Structures are given as C-alpha cells and as structure tokens.
Amino acid sequence: MGQNKRRYQPLLLTACIILSDQLSKAWIVRHIAENTVGFQFLGDFLAIVHVRNTAIAFSMGDSLPLAVKLLFFIIVPVLLVIAVLFVYFSKRFVLSSFHRWVLALFLGGGIGNLIDRIFRNFRVVDFISVKVYGFLGFERWPTWNIADASLVVSGILLAASIILESKEGKHV
Fold first, then answer.
1. Per annotation, catalytic residue among 21, 44, 116, 148
2. How far is 167 from 62, CA to CA, in rounded Å?
3. What three-state secondary structure class fits 62?
4. Percent of the chain scored above 70 by pLDDT?
5. Rounded to whole angstroms, how far apart are CA atoms 85 and 80?
6. What confidence tens digit (pLDDT) does each residue in 73-93 have?
7. Is 44 a catalytic residue?
8. What are the distances in angstroms from CA 79 to CA 66, 76, 113, 172?
9. Residue 172 has pLDDT above 50, yes or no
10. Which of 61, 134, 148, 158 is the most buried (most CB within 10 A)?
11. In sequence order, what are the residues at sequence separation of 6 or more whose Cβ sits closer than 8 angstroms to the Cβ of residue 60?
12. Residue of 44, 62, 116, 126 with catalytic role
C-alpha cells in the first residue's frame, strides 16, 4: 500500500497546478480586459496583464494554418501527455521518486495549457509580465502563466537530473 501511495502522491501536484492555473486564468479573464494591464508592482517590474497567446513559447507559430496548429498545439501535446502517463504508470520503467514529481509537474503544466487550447479556441491566457531590462534582447520577458512556469521548471529539473546522472555514471 505504501508503494502505491508514493506512486500516486505526485499526482496531487499535477492537480494543484491544473487547479491554480485554471482558477488564476479564470480570474484574469473575468477581472482584466484583454490586452490591458490590470496591476503593476515594483514600478513596472512586475505586471499582471491579460493577453492571449495563439501559439507556443515566444509566440512561435502564431501565423501557422489552423490544421498545423491543431496537429502541433493540440494533437501532439495530447499524445505527449499520454506518453508521459504511460511512462509514469508503466512497470517497464523504473522511476525515482524525484522523476515522478518532475513528471507530475510537467503534466500539470501541459494539461493546464491544453485546456486553454481546447476550450479557449487555441488562445492560452497569459498574465505574468516581468521586465528584464534588455536581457536576450527583451525589454519584457514574453508573458507567461502558471502552466508555463511548471513546464519550464520541470524541463530544467529533468535536464539537470540527466546531466548529474550522466556525470555520476562516468565516475563509477
């Protein structure tokens, strides 16, 4: 029983991310007019805005035809979520507790943005805007949301674990 509990526990993180992502987006949609700034903090360093992204990161693919968007922004991500769930639950793969938590984080972000793409006509609600003072050529970082943050953090954690595990393997 303890083994199963540990296997399913990270999925609470998935549920929390989806819930907080969708509730925050619903609040933004209801209280801040689209394409406007609702609040600013620390001067204009942090802004809560309401924008819609019809593409993926950094608005890549915004002008793609609808059929291509359907394939790459809905069908492929759905298949990826299914593949991650298969790996997560399969007895073929031995996952550490850490990797289960990372996959749960990834699933929360992926499903959160998929909900928007499916139920908001390919228009993901983004609302966190941070000033980055010219970093990488951006005055402001592209606007993001809770799902985006969980996807980025899960990607960084997964990459770091792969790098660290490969370095540990070389010393053995």
1. 148
2. 39
3. coil
4. 95
5. 9
6. 999 999 999 999 999 999 898
7. no
8. 18, 5, 14, 36
9. no
10. 148
11. none
12. 126
